[in-house]
Design a protein that fits this description.
The structure holds 2 protein chains of 2 kinds. By secondary structure, chain A is of the alpha+beta class. Chain A has helices at about 45-55, 120-125, 150-155, 165-170, 180-190, 195-200, 200-205, 220-225, 235-250, and strands at about 10-20, 25-35, 80, 85, 100-105, 110, 115. In chain A, the strands form 2 sheets. A 5-stranded mixed beta sheet of chain A has the order 2-1-5-3-4. The longest helix of chain B is centred in the last third of the chain and has 22 residues, at about 470-490. Classes of the chains: A alpha+beta, B alpha/beta.
């Protein structure tokens, strides 16, 4: 079977810490990967190097990592690449780079090597209850129809895959703070759109009030820069903050 | 964890809209559900169904009583979509489309860059939090079913799951399960009793699956299409239907006579000899300009080219489309009766894994509304059955778990790296040559033999080194395919000539000959 012709080859070292779990002993591992450079080729992605590492015949097992669509659209392969939180499948390894330091996301417990357990983010998302209340699936009462622009904007904003990069990039999210990051706040914004969003809005706003929610944000804006889906998270936080404030004022006046 | 979630009655495998709809309806009917998925539904691979335009096509639902049941569930599916804020509109030519999308106009999601399947999956997954909160549903993400265990009578006993993050295996007792994912059907076939063994009802599923495989949906070699000018992939996978009639392959950009010259199927993983560092595989997105969609000009395939043209406004025969490689599993597989039950008692199936559901009906997979309708219909059907209690300590479950653990261990430490991906590519090549182009080429059966022999050669992984679990999962699929092929031969189901059969396959699906 022929291979895609290449003109030259360079070797990149993938460096990571072998780790079997949150309490497991970590040991530094280096896996060399050869990259063929063909004329006009784009630089390889980190994900491609990781795939190649799995296929290689070296002595060290390749790192475990979570992968999905490999095209920047599912958020599975979020990790720290040379210290920067990013997706492995969209981060390209520029020419001249000889070594890459891969680390698991710091905001979540490590499962194995580069795989982390993001269930705390899922739990934080559920905390704000961003669903539509249905009594029964086949409830005969028709739901109120959203306006076309409401439908469009909710679908357009509803792009969060829960990759966790917004938490990872946020200077406010740390073991010392209770802030649960931009993603749950954004979920409150999306869930509140349209007439169906009016139901449960009050509860959602309450759930995101306080340090855990919008009050924990210091408007650093790093979340928006890190988001692979380019969700306008700062705008979302501002929108939810306004609603939360409005609700607090309303409560003050006993409404 | 409450007592009720600790003992689920029904296991639903998959995170597709069909699976999520089924899980919702089962929980809604008061059943305790365990939802098992390889990827969390929030991060479902946004590549499969095409929900942008959904023809209200009777073919979509298939024929027979089951088809009618699916068709009858469509209004409910639309209602469910409306309730989660995604209203559906009827358009021309019987089309139905989601109204949601950026901009003022109802948009074709596919071209708008948004992606209906993952949007719908995310919304349905959020709805699942309600039964989860009420103790009706438990989610088990990052797990792949690798074996379905049945007793001698053909009654389902449980499912062996592979933890895709840690690599461990777990046997979950279940007398009622629904599979709504194409991939696990590889597991169905995997290393179970010989297909001809008396009493092994599983073999019937394997055999009927093999029959379907032989009918053309041998392998999905999916590709994500890219619009010529677009910078985001079209969220649609085309493949299936004749095993690689549409396939991605690197082409020499400006070959003589303007004909694309297939260089090779991308080496997704090239095993290195000796101590040499591994070579990077053909990269997803690495050189999009050098990859094009190869669409054979065959009369049999014209309707599908036409369907692409109609749907995306691009004629694949005229316009070379850049593609992104993606190796995934295969669809088609299990024949179900008119309630959606497979030949294993208690094991239901819905979605792409069902023989005919995807491939007979439409090009890029089943439509979103059809998938959800199928999930609702089969879920409602299953809700009427009582689940028999299975002893979690049943030794047959433990035996199956141990057998699978041994297999996983072998895959992780013995099989040659990159081999599976290469074999997948060779298989697509062979099938295309034989069954689509009608030109001489490698016999698909020979490739299947090679797949069956996977891992039997000299181990090439140094001692102590293990492949990651997702590589192992890929091997599970390859073995599944091989087992299906073996089953097909054992029970003597003839391979049908011609990949895309327009003749009796529509009529016979799915309530047909059984």
């Amino acid at each position: 079977m022929s291979r895609v012709p290449s003109e030259s080859v360079r070797t990149v070292e993938l460096r990571f810490r072998r780790c079997d779990g949150p309490d497991g002993e970590a040991r530094r591992v280096v896996v060399p990967v050869a990259v063929p450079i063909g004329a006009g080729d784009a630089d390889p992605t980190v994900a491609a190097l990781l795939l190649a590492a799995a296929a290689g015949g070296g002595v060290e097992s390749p790192p475990a990592w979570e992968r999905g669509c490999l095209s920047g659209r599912c958020g599975s392969c979020a990790m720290r690449i040379d210290g920067t939180p990013a997706l492995a499948c969209t981060t390209r390894v520029a020419e001249g780079v000889r070594r890459i330091e891969l680390e698991p996301l710091e905001s979540f417990p490590v499962v194995k090597d580069l795989v982390v357990d993001r269930s705390s983010l899922a739990a934080a998302m559920e905390q704000v209850e961003p669903w539509v209340e249905l009594d029964r699936l086949d409830d005969a009462a028709p739901p109120p129809s959203p306006l076309p622009e409401e439908t469009a904007s909710s679908a357009d904003l509803d792009r969060c895959h829960g990759c966790g990069l917004c938490l990872e990039a946020c200077p406010q999210v740390s073991p010392r703070s209770r802030f649960s990051g931009a993603a749950p706040v954004h979920a409150v914004r999306v869930a509140g759109i349209g007439p169906a969003g009016a139901r449960g809005e009050r509860r959602r706003l309450e759930a995101t009030t306080g340090e855990r929610g919008v009050d924990g944000c210091a408007l650093a804006g790093q979340c928006e820069r890190a988001c692979p889906e380019e969700i306008p998270l700062v705008e979302s936080i501002a929108a939810v903050f306004r609603k939360v404030t409005g609700a607090a004022v309303a409560r003050l006046f006993g409404r | 964890m409450s007592e009720s979630t600790a003992a689920p009655e029904i296991v639903v495998c998959g995170a597709s809209p069909a699976a999520l709809a089924a899980a919702l309806v089962l929980a809604d009917r008061g059943r305790r559900v365990l939802l098992v998925s390889a990827a969390p539904p929030e991060r479902i691979l946004p590549t499969w169904t095409d929900g942008a335009l959904d023809w209200d096509d009777p073919l979509d639902a298939g024929g027979g009583a089951f088809g009618r049941r699916l068709a009858a569930a469509r209004p409910r599916a639309r209602r469910l979509l409306e309730r989660i804020g995604l209203p559906v509109e009827r358009g021309e030519e019987g089309s139905v489309r989601l109204l949601a999308g950026p901009g003022d106009e109802p948009r074709r999601f596919a071209l708008a860059g948004a992606d209906p399947e993952s949007l719908v999956a995310r919304r349905l997954a959020r709805q699942l939090a309600i039964p989860a909160r009420d103790g009706q549903l438990r989610r088990m993400d990052h797990h792949l079913p690798v074996a379905f265990v049945s007793d001698d009578e053909g009654q389902l006993l449980g499912i062996v799951l592979l933890d895709l993050r840690g690599g461990g295996l777990e046997a979950v007792p279940a007398s009622l399960a629904l599979v709504a994912d194409g991939d696990p059907f590889a597991a169905l076939a995997a290393p179970h009793p010989a297909p001809s063994a008396p009493g092994a009802a599983l073999s019937a599923a394997v055999a009927s699956g093999a029959a379907w495989q032989a009918e053309g949906a041998l392998l999905v070699q999916p590709v994500a299409l890219r619009a010529p000018e677009g910078d985001r992939p079209l969220p649609t996978v085309v493949g299936l239907l004749g095993a690689g009639f549409v396939e991605e392959r690197p082409v020499v950009a400006d070959a003589a006579e303007g004909e694309p010259t297939p260089e090779s199927v991308p080496d997704v993983g090239v095993s290195a000899e000796g101590e040499a560092p591994p070579v990077v595989p053909a990269l997803p997105e690495a050189s999009p300009a050098r990859r094009r969609l190869v669409f054979p000009r065959s009369a049999a395939l014209a309707p599908f080219a036409e369907a692409i043209r109609r749907r995306f406004g691009i004629d694949p025969r005229e316009t070379p489309l850049a593609v992104t490689p993606a190796v995934r599993g295969f669809a088609g597989g299990v024949r179900v009766d008119d309630r959606g039950e497979s030949s294993i008692s208690g094991l239901f199936a819905v979605g792409e894994g069902v023989a005919g559901f995807a491939a007979d009906a439409r090009l890029p997979g089943p439509s979103l509304v059809a998938s959800i309708a199928a999930g609702l219909a089969v879920g409602e059907e299953m809700a009427r059955f009582g689940a028999a209690a299975v002893d979690p300590a049943d030794e047959r479950l433990e035996a199956a778990r141990e057998r699978e653990a041994a297999r996983v261990d072998r895959w992780a430490t013995e099989a040659r790296p990159g081999e599976v991906a290469r074999l997948f590519g060779r298989l697509a090549d062979a099938v295309r040559a034989h069954e689509v182009d009608g030109r001489p080429g490698e016999e698909p059966a020979a490739v299947l033999e090679a797949i069956a022999a996977l891992g039997s050669g000299e181990p090439s992984i140094p001692e102590g080194r293990r492949l990651p679990v997702d590589e192992v999962a890929l091997r599970a699929r390859a073995e599944g395919i091989a087992a299906l092929e073996q089953a097909r031969r054992t029970v003597g189901i003839p391979r049908r000539g011609g990949a895309i059969a327009g003749d009796d396959s529509f009529g016979s699906f799915p309530g047909g000959a059984r």
